[in-house]
Specification:
β9 and β10 form a beta hairpin. The protein is 27% helix and 18% strand. It contains 9 helices and 14 strands. The strands form 2 sheets. It has a 7-stranded mixed sheet. It binds zinc ion (2 copies). One zinc ion (ZN) binds next to loops.
Length: 351
């Protein structure tokens, strides 16, 4: 009798265990995988597209350049306003060059896609070279609280730069796209949080949300789209900003406005757009950048991703000129969407 009741108890518990396992597997299976996550572990854009440019097309672009080859020119540079930058509760933005900004929102010091070395390449003797030097030196950076990385392309993620920052700011947090954390851990940079689109991280009073844009990722020939790409929306009680990283034009900007509301300042890429047949998918021209500005309903915008590296075929000083034309054509205030001088610091309290 005793034995049979024990047997019954075991049978009953086993049954419960089996049912629980089935229930858990079912929840697991019914949990919807986001549409931009493919089964093979790679990612696609919100409209289902992936950059499908083949090596053949890259070769065609590189060898068949009929359009004017970009000629380096020397841009004016100014020294960053270190007095303002080092003030307590500084409220400012400094353009270091390309997609790198130092943004201070009265609360935190934030670096976006920091690149403070000479080349945007996996090797140090070839690849896109800077023709405008970084407008801030490593030693000029204030204490950094967090760093946002838009994606893993070499002009946005520079190994030497992130290593220096991590070493000299042991408490700084790197916010990176989904799938990219491992790259940092492999480099012994351990303060890293990776986010999927629309996921949010909060530091003090600042809320940081990762937003979708139309782009792609790769660091080697074999890792295309294995890590995500996107923009960073940073908001506290004083100010909101979005850094769009690298992006072609898509409906993502309208969606970002719908989900997160208007921003005070948008950092929008305006360069690396020629030739269009090759670049349109991944980079906006100034015309599309103005449309993005309108879609985001941003109060102000700064054009970035130009004037620093020669990546594509347009003349290097063309993006700001085209931007001005476009604003005029649409009867928009030229002061609403500006470009900065390399090194310039804007005092956002006065803006
Ligand atoms: Zn890119
Ligand atoms: Zn880029």
């Amino acid at each position: 009798m005793h034995n049979s009741s024990r047997f019954g108890k075991i049978l009953f518990l086993s049954l419960i265990f089996i049912l629980l396992t089935i229930a858990m597997t079912m929840t697991e299976n019914t949990k919807k995988t986001p549409e931009h996550h493919l089964e093979n572990g790679t990612f696609v854009n919100t409209n289902g597209t992936a950059n499908n440019k083949k090596l053949k097309e890259l070769w065609k672009w590189m060898t068949g350049k009929k359009e004017t080859k970009a000629i380096p020119i020397e841009f004016e540079m100014v020294d960053p306003d270190l007095k303002l930058i080092n003030q307590d509760k500084s409220f400012s933005i400094t353009w270091i060059g390309h997609a790198s900004f130092l943004y201070q929102n009265k609360e935190l010091n934030i670096l976006t896609d920091p690149h403070l070395t000479n080349r945007a390449s996996p090797i140090n003797f070839a690849g896109p070279q800077r023709y405008t030097k970084p407008a801030m030196k490593f030693e000029e950076l204030p204490k950094i609280d967090f760093i946002t990385i838009s994606h893993n392309h070499y002009d946005h993620l520079d190994l030497k730069t992130v290593k220096w920052i991590a070493k000299n700011n042991p408490d700084a947090m790197f916010l990176v796209p989904l799938g990219l954390k491992k790259w940092f851990l492999d480099k012994s940079i351990n303060n890293v949080i990776e986010l999927d689109w629309w996921e949010r991280h909060i530091i003090n009073d600042t809320k940081i949300t990762f937003t979708p844009v139309q782009h792609w990722s790769s660091r080697t020939l074999f890792d295309r789209n294995q890590t995500l790409w996107g923009g960073w929306h940073i908001k506290n009680n004083h100010h909101s900003l979005i850094h769009l990283g690298d992006t072609g034009y898509s409906d993502d900007f309208k969606e970002t406005f719908k989900k997160l509301g208007p921003v005070d300042l948008a950092l929008i890429p305006i360069g690396a757009y020629a030739p269009r047949w090759f670049m349109q998918f991944s980079h906006m021209n100034p015309n599309e950048a103005v449309q993005a500005f309108i879609d985001l309903k941003a109060e102000k915008a700064i054009g970035m991703h130009w004037g620093t590296f020669i990546l594509t075929d347009e003349p290097v000083d063309e993006p700001p000129l085209k931007l001005e034309e476009e604003l005029e054509d649409r009867s928009l205030d030229a002061k609403s969407f500006i470009t900065m001088i390399h090194g310039q610091t804007i005092n956002l309290s006065e803006d």
